[in-house]
Amino acid sequence: QDPYGLTPREKEVLASLSQGNSYKMIAAALSVTVDTIRSHIKHIYEKLHVHSQTEAVSKAIYEKLV
Question: What is the pLDDT of residue 2?
């Protein structure tokens, strides 16, 4: 069901991104730093083979990852 090997936390971050939340809002909601969110986003981009937030969200929705 998830051919990209996203971790549960990465899926959580991706879902939050797809709802239009900023890095700062996601960090606050998950009780982590913005740098931690940036790290998760970097890994998500690598795993999904995308280069932007728009591409990542679009792919996630299209492939029903979130």
Answer: 75
In the chain, pLDDT over 70 holds for what percent of residues? 98
Both structure tokens of 21: 């939340």
**HEC assignment per residue over the chain:** CCCCCCCHHHHHHHHHHHCCCCHHHHHHHHCCCHHHHHHHHHHHHHHHCCCCHHHHHHHHHHCCCC
Amino acid at 16: S
Other CB atoms within 10 Å distance of the CB of residue 23: 19
pLDDT of residue 53: 93
